[in-house]
Hints:
It is built from no helices and 13 strands.
Amino acid sequence: MFGFFLYVAIKSYETYSGEKDEVPVAYYNMIKLKHTRSEYLLSSIELPYQQGSNQQLVRAIHKVTLAETFWTVYPPANETDEVPQGKPVECGSVIRLNHATTGKWLHSHKIPGHFGSGYEVTCFDGSDSGDNWLLECNDMWTLGSVFRLKHIDTGFYLAANETSEYPKEEAGEHEIYAAEEDEGNEWQIVGGIFVDENEDQ
């Protein structure tokens, strides 16, 4: 039987710092991702971009309580039968993120970003290599630890544009895009539903 950890409030890393408080992120956990520089959360909404791919819009928002800020961690499509629920995700792994409220995959491709930087990031209802992201972190991927997500196909990093906002007709809030390495691309897990591999005694 799996153990469950539920954090329904967004709290700072300091709340969970210290060895005994480290909560590893595992496959099939549902998580909230915060852009460290802007403190906005990764989100999506069932609305297409008006330009570019016309796929589902991904944005950065400040409303931490919205269900649209939850994402589920998956292995690559060809490994889903091999990776058990609750297995901790190791740094250097390739992962996919599935949007909790629309069921689509966090995706990127070589279509220019909407504010002139990097590449577009979308939610995609198909499944291909554009959904794969390399997890870059130190030691363990845990609640509160800083990490980066490098897109496998383009080599660019998941980033947030905290200075440019989408028009209100495109749901407002800030752009998520794939950026080159020297741009702000660090993230933290700040909440979610966590499952571990420990059996209840």
